[in-house]
Amino acid sequence: MAKRSLWGEIERRGEGTLRARYIGPDEARHSRTFRALKNETLADANFRASAWLIAEHRLVEEGTWTPPARRIEDELEAARRENEKRLTLREYGIKALKARKIKPRTLVGYLGMLERLILPTLGDCPLVEITPEMVRAWHDKVGISAEPKRAGKAVPRQQAHVYTTLRLIFNQAIADGLVRDNPCHIEGAGGTSPKRDIEVPTAQQVDAMACEMPARLALAVLLGAWCGLRKGEVLALRRGDVDTETWVLHVRRGVVRVDGRFIDDMGPKTTNSVRDLPIPPRIRAAVSGHLAPEAGYMQRGKDALLFPSESGGYMHESTIQKYWSRARAKVERPDLHFHDLRGTGATWLGQQGATLAELMAWLGDKTVIAAMRYQHSSMDRLVTLTNQMSAAAAEPALTLRSAS
Q: Is there a domain that residue 100 lies in?
């Protein structure tokens, strides 16, 4: 039975439980449940219920009353906003990056840049207080090399990548309703043109570098150049990916090492990277030799890795990099990265007349810009092309009259 208070009523709902309720100015019934806490009696719960009714009555008399449920929502919202004001980039950054749909290895790179290059300067700043001016001041100093040979100089690609990381975090903050605007407004800061202008190696140089590798890794160099594979794609190749009847290479995965473990079930770098590639006649003998059981480079079965580690699992990138560094030095091309083999093949293909669309399909790139990045023009080739263009006209050279 409900016990009427001076204003409202208190009703026993069960053992140790009371419900206080009243009819508010909106003519609706409002209530709140009170339970006897540990080491409390029902009288203690009754005291708290009575105090609540008195407080509610006072709000009605003062004309400041609003429905209790709405007040609770307002209090929670105010507390949330207050917490958001105190939420720092350090507290939010990792969570924001993990919320994005990013490949594991890319995520590791972003988290590394966040830790090394963003948080030391901006980490303890509340998100809502980071301004474009602060970002600009940070960007002017971030990515400055500490190496003796490059001390005080910016590393453009790193600078662009770390700026992109910060911009991604604030894009996520906008999506989460934590900030209204992205303070990353520096024009062109998120992009960079390639600064490395390499001399494309010849087929003979690629052959020479392959020969300088351990025999079990020679084919890795040839596939990098003649099939345009990324290093992770090369290391993830299995016996079943090589069709020696049709001479087609099936690229289905790319292995990466994340948090100390290898992952290959995510597919290659992009959806476009899943592709079938013709194996050029020039390297078919090398492919056959590598697959031959007597070579002993790999285990039997279609799931056997083409380039396994000594333990039979995935080869660590540092292993192939060690041998690659020696091979390129022997051929006097210490400037070449293993990834440059991919661009080398794209350049050779382009010189044979491949269209941009064909290059994109061959490389497994999803954007025109990405494919164009691997096209290195040579003056000799341009001279040849322009001479052929003139010869194709089959008419005397045209003399233009000067403008009067």
A: yes
Is 372 within 8 Å of 356 (Cβ atoms)?
yes
- Tokens 């990013």 locate to 102
Q: How many CB atoms lie within 10 A of CB 387?
A: 10
Exposure of 272 in the CB half-sphere (CA atoms within 13 A) = 14
d(CA 322, CA 222): 17
Angle (CA) 253-256-257 rounded to 5° is 150
Give start and end residues of each alpha helix (H) in 27-155.
42-62, 68-86, 89-99, 104-113, 119-122, 132-141
Residue 345 and residue 214 share a domain: yes
Number of domains in the chain: 3
Per-residue pLDDT tens over the stretch 237-286: 999 999 999 999 999 988 877 667 787 754 555 555 789 999 999 999 99
Q: Which residues pair with 154 in a beta bridge?
A: 144
pTM above 0.70, yes or no: no
Q: Which of 386, 232, 393, 259 has its CA nearest to residue 321?
A: 232
Burial class (CB in 10 A: 0-12, 13-18, 19+), 362: buried
Backbone φ and ψ for 248, nearest 5 degrees, come out as: -120, 135
